[in-house]
Structure formats: C-alpha cells, structure tokens
Amino acid sequence: SRKADYLVQPRLVNHTDIADLATESLLVIRVITCLDAGGTPQVTHAMLRVLAKLERSWNDSTEYAAPIDLKTGRMGAMTGDKLAGSLDWHDRHPLTGAPVNGRLLAAWPEVQAAAIKAHEAFTDRILLGWDIAVTPDGIVIVEGNAMPDVAFLQRVHRQAIGQSPLAPLLRHHLKRLERV
Q1: Per residue in 48-105, pLDDT tens?
Q2: SS3 per residue for the chain
Q3: What's this model's pTM, rounded to 2 decimal places?
C-alpha cells in the first residue's frame, strides 16, 4: 500500500444452510426485478448461482444454477451454462454432491425483500438483476446488473421470457414506448 491505496473488505462466507454447495466461493442468488405499470419493482425470477471457476480445486469453468420458486423459496434441479452440459439436470450438485432439487432456501423472504428495496433506489431502470449473498450475518447485496444474462435465466427456468412472469411487465413498457 506504499504506492497506492487499497480497499480492504471482510471476506464474506456462505450461510451454513447453503455452504455445502461451494467449497471456497461465495454463492449468490440472482434475483430479477422489473417495474410494474405503477413503477413498483416486482420479482420475476430467482436462481442460486455457483461459479465453478472460483473454486480452485474443481477444475471447471461452468456456471451452475438452480431455479428458485418465488412463492416457496424451494430450488429446482441444477444445470450449467456450457453447451456440452446444457441439457443435463442435476438433483444434486454435480461437484459437491449436496442436494439441490427440492431444497428450501430459508432466507428467501429476506432475499426477495432486499431485491425489491434495492430496485426502489433505482427506478430509472426498468429491469435489474441482483446478486445477493446469504451469509451468517444476514443478506448482502453483492451487485446490481443493468443487463443480466437472460439466455441462461430462461434455460435454468425451462421457460421462455415470453411465457414467464416478466412478459406482462415488459409488454407494458414496450407499449408505453410505442406511444411515445
């Protein structure tokens, strides 16, 4: 630090409820929010993300994800973002063996509330993707993404955006733009 200033932050770790889904890396819940016709953020999708490239011992560069049911917080089967395994679905984490499908994310209500509250601070953006960590000390918003990856999102949820909860919200905004 003699040549330049450094920002030192505490290392975040995963809550024990989900810690078996990673070895070293921080897991995040990707939550998609979109403004409704009244300008209120709505959660339309959520998925637990595991970036294997951050795990030194895994020798894998896949991003794995499992969809999260918006009402219950229960996870579905996990898949990866690589073409070779894009049609593979795993009830258990493919590298740790930890159960995924049917697993309840106990912190889901808090994660959902944090995403909505965060979007309320950025209502100039119609659509946002939030990466939210669940730690022993609570919920931490890691980042907001103005251009989240919707291709992987659709595959993880096995549903095209046009048939998803996001469709009517986007349709409203597109119609509004047509009138301008």
Answers
A1: 999 989 998 888 888 999 999 999 999 999 999 988 877 899 999 999 999 999 999 9
A2: CCCCCCCCCCCCCCCCCCHHHCCCCCCEEEEEEEECCCCCEEEEEEEEEEEHHHCCCCCCCCEEEEEECCCCCEECCEEECCHHHCCCCECECCCCCCECCCCECCCHHHHHHHHHHHHHCCCCCCEEEEEEEEECCEEEEEEEECCCCHHHHHHHHCCCHHHCCHHHHHHHHHHHHHHC
A3: 0.93
Q: What is the DSSP letter of 19?
A: G
Q: Is the pLDDT of residue 168 over 90?
A: yes
What type of residue sits at position 151?
Answer: A
Q: How many residues does the structure list for the chain?
A: 180
| E strand residue ranges, 14-118 | 28-35, 41-51, 63-67, 79-80
Instruction: Locate 140 and state its tokens.
Output: 């931490």
* CA–CA distance, 91 with 77 (Å, rounded to integer): 5
Q: What is the pLDDT of residues 132-166, one digit of tens each?
A: 999 999 999 999 999 998 999 999 999 999 999 99
